[in-house]
Each structure stands twice: as C-alpha cells, then as structure tokens.
Design goal:
Blueprint (H helix, E strand, L loop, with lengths): L8 H8 L3 H9 L6 H14 L5 H4 L8 E6 L5 H16 L3 E6 L4 H14 L3 E4 L8 H10 L2 E4 L9 E5 L1 H15 L4 E5 L7 H14 L6 E4 L6 H14 L7 E4 L2 H13 L13 E3 L16 E3 L2 H17 L10 E4 L2 E3 L5
Helix pairs in contact: 5-12, 8-9, 10-11
Amino acid sequence: MSDPKIKNMDEFAAVVGISRPTLSKYFQNPDKVRISTRERIEAGLKKFDYRPNVYAINQNRQMTRNVGIIVPFLADPFFSEIARRIERRVIEAGYQPLLMNSHGDPETELENLKTLRTIKPAGTLIAPLGRVSKRDAIEEYCEDVATVVFDSNLNIESRCFIGSDNVQFVRETVEYLSRTGEAPCFYEMRTPANPNAQKRRQAYIDTMEQMGQEPQIIQVVGEGWDFEEISYREGLNLLDQRAIPSSTVLCSNDRLAIGLLSACYEKGYRVGRGNQCAFRVAGMDDHPFSRYTCPSLTTMAHDYDGVSTRSVDALLALLSDPDSPDHVRQETLCQGKLIMRSSA
C-alpha cells in the first residue's frame, strides 16, 4: 500500500513526529536543528514526497502588515485607476499598501522587488511589464512571498492571475463595428509597451478571419508610453498619405485612439457615425477621459472593480491559509462592457 499523500505542514509534522515550530526552524535553516532531527525530517520528505509551502514556513516569522503593489507605469490612467482601487481595498482589509511604479523599465521592476524583500511584506500584488519583464526573477520572488499577478499574465506556476478577457474585448468590438459599418482595421504600435497589445492583435486577426474578413493592421512607429503623442504624429502622416485602409479604425487602446482623433480633427476629417463622417474610431480600456473627447470615444470598458476586488481577495486568501491545498494556480478573466459613444 502506498504512503498517504501529505497535504500540508500539520499533516507532515504528525507523520514524522516532529513539532510544527521545529519543522519551521529546519526549513528556515537546517543547521538550526539537531543532526538526528534533520535526518528524520529529510527521510520523511523523501518518503512522502512532500514539498513544503514557503508561505506556511513564514507563519512563525514576524511579518509586517504591508502589502506591495507594483504597476508598470503609474502615469497611464488605467494603471493609476486600478492601483487606486486596489489600495483602497487593501486598506479596508487592515493592511498598509506600498505603491511602486516600474516606469516601463524591467530593471526598475526588479529593483522594486528587491526593495520589497527588505521590507518583508505580508504579500504583493504585481502587474508585470509583460514581454520585457525578467520572468525568472519575478517567479523566484513569487516563490518566497505570497503574490498575486494581475493584468499581464506571465503564466507563473502555482500563482493566481486576475486580468481582463482581451479576446472578448476585441471580439465583441469587432463584431459591433462590422455590424454597423465597414469592418475595422487595427491600429497599434509596432513595438507596443503595454503588456496586452499582442493578445489584442491576435484576437483581432482571429475574429476577422472567423468572420471571413481580411485583417488589416496599421503599425505606427514609436517607443515608450507616450501613446497619444505617437499616435497623433503618425496619424497625421497616415492621413496625408491616405494610407488608412478602412473608414473604421479599432485602436489597440484608448490612448492611441485619442491621438488619432486629434490628428483627424487637425486634418479636417470628421469622426463619428453620420453619413458626413469620414471615419469611425473606437478604442479599448475606457480611459477615464474617453467620455470627454470630441466626439466621445466608443470603447470596451475594463471591469475595474472586478479586477481590483478579485486580486485583493485572492491575496487575502493566500495570507489567511497559506498552506491550504486549494491554492492551485487559478486564472480569472473579467469581461469588459462595450460602451457605445459618438465616435463609432
């Protein structure tokens, strides 16, 4: 008969006959326990194939009430809004939020993690930069500190991910635009800084092909997070060259859409739904200023409350019962809501 499967530290302590505090001392530093005790523990680990949860080990350490929150670029209105809501929920749960900005730089992202290690936070909520992140370093941090990843999915094993359903965002917007006018082209940066841009591009291609339409992608040149400026500058050039292949433009995010709206206005192109309009323009994210553009911007709105609440709830669950066998990797995708305004 095979040995029973050990689910948590308490069960392991019972089968090897060693107290929980002594086990915690061993996992902190094996040299701190007697040789005979260390040998019993190591024999038990081998016999029962038990891998301890590092969060459980920390139960006997003095932990702070701080929760680290790391976002890619705080000046981006999406991240400032989601961070504001997460901060509020962390405070309501009785913890002190420490908000950190990676400034779009992977090295700064790593420095933020190093800083948090010195503070020894109770847990961390991180929205990684995405494709430029140092994935191995983030994964190592997640092994040592209770961490929930949100917005950009790095597919780190045994960690929660909470984000938006970018496929649903794009699919519903493309279907709406195609029902109400010419099928859209997709307008994005050639080297996008925001982490979900590539998922949105692929979702656009897949949706157009499923509808029997040919995908048409415009990739503007630019680096960094000055999306409005990049889109405005490149939009002027495209309009001068009459190089926009459809009268309907779906932008990868609202900030690009705002820059394109400004370029259209400067060149005398009317944007909107009417017959006298040259273009329809839509975005994604529901930027806090999107309702105040002229015309107001049609967009797919994030579920800000859903992402922020579920992210904090997932972290609190890790902190309340760190050794629970229920803490397997889970991905939660929050659907967006199509906001139909005047621009498309």
